[in-house]
Amino acid sequence: MRSMLESTASFVNCVGGTNGDNPTEPTAADFETVVTSLQNSDAEFIGDVVEGENKFGTGPVRDSYFCMAHTALIPRLQAMNGFISKAQYPSQLNILSAEWGSVNNVRLVLSSRGSITPNASLLGANVYNMFVTGQESYTSIQLDGESAKFIYHPPGWGDDPAELRQTAAFRFAHARAITNDAWIINLRATL
Amino acid sequence: MSLQEIIYRGSLISTGAAQVVSIPAGFDQFVLRNRTTLAAGAGIIESKYWLGMANATAETKTVAGGAITDAIIVANGFTYVDDSTNQLSAPNATTTAISQAAAAIVSLTSTAGLNAGDVIRFYSTTGMLQIAGMDFSIDTIVANTSFRLPYLNSAGFGAAGTAGTFRRVAFANNYKFYPSWRYITGITAAAQAVVTFSVTHQYVVGQKLSLRIPTAFGMTQMNGLTGTVVAINTTTNTVTLDIDSSAFTAFAFPTSATAAAGVSFPIAVPAGESATILTGAERDIASRSILIGSAICGTLNDVMDYWAYRSET
After folding, report:
1. What are the DSSP calls for chain A, one per residue?
2. pLDDT (tens digit per residue) in B39-93
3. Contact yes or no for A3 and B181 at CB 8 A
4. ipTM
5. Which of A33, B82, B215, B224 has the most CB atoms less than 10 A away?
6. How is chain B split into domains, by residue range?
7. What is the pTM of this model?
8. How close A129 gets to chain B, by Cα (Å)?
């Protein structure tokens, strides 16, 4: 899925930062640009509003698109104006373990397997792809008869008279595609 | 010690230029034999490559006058490609100039490892930062002197480039899924807009493309429009879309200074296909393969056989 989104989603560069590169590091203004574009395309939010409550150190979270990005961006994301850590959400219900926080109308979900395009910035730095997605913007279709299968053959299986070899493999097939290219934007950033 | 070996074999007809052979399971050794030169008794009859050899190298056997000569070549040989790994070459920082021309010429002191048809990723292009970060197909390589960016018309740029660094993008298809997005380097103002891409586009008639044109690139009326490809031109690397852009403002790259301050790039993204074709379906094209470079690819219509050996331990 990550490779499909890298290859086919439209992108915009972060330009609000000050690191001197193009794209720059991410800023709240860049997320606002993406949110505006998705709203102009009638993309639906995924996350509901988390209403404010009378709890110290918390703040309400807007209804949100979801953003999938690399964990290397954590320092830059946390430094953005308006960033709300998930620990500061008024309610801890319906929060993903991979969620890091939110900014503007975007909730940030991070992974160490996030998408990187190497050496693709103006100065040759790695570019981090942050996929900001609305509801039903992309899909994954399991193909009948080819669902995931783990295959293990112990020593002695097949042409192995000395029982020296064992093999393990997995096999699956599924199709992936963007269903509406106006409902997902790759916001590209450097560190 | 190897307990068994998988051999993946096949034949190909030379196009007279570098070409890619897909080896899905990978390999440890690759052997290419040229039936045509073997029959003629002249030319390179066999080329070999092992994993671990430097890119663009090969061990060759050349026959001439009834004698066979072994040699190691260090340019335009084999290059192993694994596009599941975002494989890039080491940086080449020997660029001394990028010209302002209908097809920009890059002057440099080392063309080692480059083949016509390669894709490069340019950055730090001093004086021409509007292309920094973009990928380009290249052709017309003059050894250790220059290569051409056939799909970049830089004639209207404010200044020539005076330096730059690039890396070779090892996978010829550039991205892992087909069809993928492409950088746009030009759009005509015409009854049917003609769009030029920086990298060989691979689009076909009937596919739909949606265009993203940032304000800095002029033709903002095109931003967000989706058109159907009604014609393609593989020589100019263009597609013709059923979008009337004749009244749109001209497409133009921003200045180098504007780009340095931060811009997005104009791109086309795949957006489906007309009901009459199915070739635009999204599919995974990531694979392991080997690029047969121009020094060993034979001449047009040479018949060649190959064996890719993979040892299982």
Report:
1. -HHHHHHHS-EEE--S--SSSSS----HHHHHHHHHHHHHTTPPPSBPPB---S-TT---B--BEEEEEEGGGHHHHHTSTT-EEGGGSS--TT--TTEEEEETTEEEEEETT--EETT-STTS--EEEEEEE-TTSEEEEEPTT---EEEEE-TTSSS-TT----EEEEE--EEEEES-TTSEEEEEE--
2. 999 999 999 999 889 888 999 999 998 899 999 998 889 988 877 666 787 899 9
3. no
4. 0.84
5. A33
6. 4-81+287-312, 92-169, 177-284
7. 0.83
8. 13
